Amino acid sequence: MGKQNIKANIAKHREALEKMALDIWAKPEAGFREFNATKLQQDYLKNMGAKITSPVDVVETAFIAEYGSGKPIIGILGEFDALPGLSQKAGLTVQDPLEPGAYGHACGHNLLGTAGVLAFAALMDTMKEENLPGTLRFYACPAEENLSGKSYMARAGVFNDLDCCLTYHPGNQDAVSGGSNNAYTLMEFYFKGIPAHAGGAPWLGRSALDAVELMNVGCNYLREHIIDGGRMHYIIIDGGMAPNIVPATAAVRYSVRAPKMDQMQDIVRRLILCAEGAAHMTETTMTYSVKSVMHNMMPNYTMNEIMYENLCQVTPTEFTDEEKKFMDDMVATYAPEAIAAACKQYGFSPAELEHGMRMKPVLYGDKSQCGGGSTDVGDVSYITPTAQFTTACAPIPVSAHTWQSCSCYGTSVGTKGMIRAGEAMALTGYDLFTDKKDVIEKAKEELKADLDGATYTPIPDDMMPYYD
């Protein structure tokens, strides 16, 4: 009974879900277009007898699987979108794309989402076997990369009745972090000018590209005057058609980040002023569009502690000689100082690594720390107490969003980390459904204190998914 049932049910589903994760890896899909991944996961859970709701709000590939009834209501989050331009063959230590310029699972969402399916499946089986009361949900969340799929789901209110939520992300170590990450906005600025012959009559033209470049100059001067930890990144997505034509249109895409929502919103306000000033200087017109918004993460120490306890109880992983060689070969492609820097970032010594991995679970960080990245898990964490952790699916210093990580996440090294994650979430869910229900109320009290009167602000009703 109990947690031994969880472990037995993890083993029962393991082979099928390892195959699912690698099938999703082999067919990477863009945000809001994850039709293969969503079908694989929906079919698996539907065949188990879970109730499936799809789509969610205006998001076609999102779905919710549910089993049970009554309280507590516990959610598990999954993702399955890939990244553009990071196609890569699996298990290689040299860059070799499957399809040049195509999408690739360089953030491991093939593992992330499938770990959630595994946790749900093992918990659902155990709830049936032991007749446990409560409601279990799996949220399949599209478009985490830049496009904030969970924001649309949150707008629909699907997280509002959750008592708590569990999620994970592939990484370089088995760890639960108490740190936060940045609030985020993705937006585009469009400038419209007047075309002219750039050599024959440039004085007749009003260059939209000049406006984009002046806006970017303004942004770069603005960097000195924003808060520490604030970030602005941009790419020009329309720069004109030919150098001998004064560009009548031009556009630039910006990401804006800051540790807190209000800080991020103030940077956005000042960035819009830069855009307006650039339009005045060039006698062009400017419009802008907000494509996504993500809240900063609200770490919950209470949830983290129970997640850490269960991460320590997960069945140890054994690697084959072939897997060890792959990890060693991948580590050898990095300079020693890069490995040392990556270890320092996490607060441990390279001597603690085995084949580039640190497998002993750790609980680290605090709410005063804010990482540079962003995730729409932050939106969920404003609504309900949320625990997020990592498992080692690639050796240090392999970084997410690189071809190296795509190579790792398509191998058995990656899927073995996924299995540990699924087991940790299932064990944690079991505790919360049974003898540790009091943890949920304590976690809710912590979230209420951290919010200090603040409430979650959904995205506007007229905001629609952006297809990159």
TrEMBL record:
Pfam families associated with the record: M20_dimer
Domain Peptidase M20 dimerisation span(s) in chain numbering: 188-271
Database matches in InterPro entries: Amidohydrolase (IPR017439), Aminobenzoyl-glu_utiliz_pB (IPR017145), Bact_exopeptidase_dim_dom (IPR036264), Peptidase_M20/M20A_hydrolases (IPR052030), Peptidase_M20_dimer (IPR011650)
Domain of life (superkingdom): Bacteria
PANTHER family, A to Z: PEPTIDASE M20, XAA-ARG DIPEPTIDASE
Protein name: Amidohydrolase
